[in-house]
Design brief:
The chain is α+β, with helices and mostly antiparallel strands. The protein folds into 3 domains: 98 residues, Lipocalin, CATH 2.40.128.120; 98 residues, Lipocalin, CATH 2.40.128; 169 residues, Glutaredoxin (3-Layer(aba) Sandwich). The protein is built from 8 helices and 27 strands. The strands form 5 sheets. A 9-stranded antiparallel β-sheet has the order 4-3-2-1-9-8-7-6-5, with no helix packed on it. Strand 15 and strand 16 form a beta hairpin. It is globular, with a radius of gyration of 24 Å.
Length: 406
């Protein structure tokens, strides 16, 4: 057999998956405890240059490394210390996404061009309060649910005291709005059914919340004396506001950084309690570096007190990836394992939200405490929280300047 004929025979017998490409948008489902949660994933490149990303509304959660070889895909997402492993065969991608030791089955097919739905959908846009929630962790009795709508297409987020669900997206189908979210963490499925009395029946399925609850407009909740969402500025306090907020932990180089260090003297200081395992902490991680860059020259300091699982403390790959991704220039300290955080933060009272930020004035005393942090999926609520966060910083900086001139 000639060399040309031999090569042709080899290529003809090669697995079909070898010639398939992943590039483009895919419709996927993730199986969480028997619940199929739909989401989208997109790929670009090939071989050792393969890249993929999940969607959080208009934002992307990008892979940090990977390869595609003979139809076998491996993608790492170091910001979540997670790995996607799957096999591409006959236009179908099957595998699992492993995060924090838990494998989640993934199934995906290539997305077909989509035309906007012409179904006439009822208008549910705006702000709702979810009543009768079961949240023993934060002792909440109501959440905020913000929805943006364009015809039959909807997006939005559920905002708890510790942050939101990430951007939920979906559409009106068979008398219900079906929304979902997955961007590497906090998978969720939400089914919303408009009721004849103007309320919404909201069924929650996901990593942290399950069950059927009711949503009402804010004015209805107040008129009926229903529970209101927890105020993120009132949720946590300090044990003694006349005493400093103390900390003393090593940075990533092993150097001990303490609240008594000279560089913090006479400065406005944000002490951010965080963990790289926490998606809502990622949300604040994306906000604080720009705030620090803008106001540092005016006297703002920021310190992140990071608490992790034991393996991440030994080798904080996930934390280092986030620091690099967001361009964090302020001090990030390793506080220890998550379970030890309350014992190591004796000034924090009624603290149970990841993240939580303590606003410290120039005198070393805590002036404000803010629990949680949202992302753009929360719409106007996100904008409002950012504005209020910035206003507090500016207020303390002005007080700092005024006191310094006296």
């Amino acid at each position: 057999m000639t060399r040309r004929l031999l090569l042709a025979a080899v290529l003809a017998s090669a697995p079909a998956a070898w010639s398939e490409t992943l590039a483009g948008l895919w419709n996927a489902t993730l199986n969480l405890n028997g619940t199929e949660i739909p989401f989208k994933i997109e790929f670009a490149g090939d071989g050792s240059n393969i890249k993929g990303w999940f969607f959080n509304g208009d934002e992307h959660e990008n892979s940090t490394g990977g390869r595609l070889e003979n139809g076998s895909l491996v993608l790492s997402f170091d910001t979540y210390a997670s790995v996607l492993k799957a096999t591409l065969k006959d236009g179908v991608l099957d595998g699992e996404y492993s995060t924090r030791g838990k494998p989640l089955p993934i199934h995906a097919v290539r997305a077909a061009p989509r035309t906007p739905s012409k179904v006439k959908a009822p208008d549910i846009s705006g702000l709702w309060y979810l009543e009768g929630v079961s949240s023993r962790k934060h002792n909440e009795k109501a959440w905020q649910f913000v929805i943006q709508q364009h015809g039959a297409e909807v997006s939005g987020a559920i905002l708890r005291v510790d942050g939101d669900t990430g951007t939920l997206t979906g559409s009106y189908q068979d008398g219900k709005f079906v929304l979902s979210h997955f961007s590497g963490g906090r998978p969720a499925l939400v089914v919303v059914t408009p009721e004849s009395d103007g309320t919404l029946a909201v069924e929650l399925k996901g990593q942290h919340h399950e069950g059927l609850i009711s949503a009402v407009r804010p004015d209805q909740a107040r008129a009926k004396g229903l529970d209101l969402p927890t105020d993120a500025d009132q949720h946590t306090r300090v044990v003694d506001p006349t005493k400093p907020f103390t900390f003393s932990f090593p940075d990533l180089n092993g150097k001990i950084v303490s609240n008594t260090d000279e560089r913090f003297r006479g400065k406005v200081l944000l002490v951010n309690i965080t963990g790289s395992w926490c998606p809502n902490c990622h949300d604040e991680d994306a906000f604080l570096p720009a705030l620090y860059d803008k106001y540092h020259a005016q006297g703002l300091e920021v310190v992140a007190l990071d608490f992790e699982e034991a393996e991440q403390l030994a080798d904080p790959v996930r934390l280092k990836t986030l620091i690099k991704e967001y361009g964090t220039k302020y001090s990030v300290l390793l506080g220890g394992e998550t379970s030890t955080a309350k014992d190591k933060l004796p000034q924090a009272a009624d603290w149970d939200s990841w993240p939580t930020t303590f606003f410290v004035g120039r005198d070393g005393l805590v002036k404000f405490v803010h629990a949680g942090f949202p992302r753009p999926g929360s719409g106007e609520l996100y904008k409002k929280q950012k504005e209020e966060f910035i206003a507090k910083v500016e207020q303390l900086l002005i007080a700092n300047q005024t006191a310094s001139k006296q």
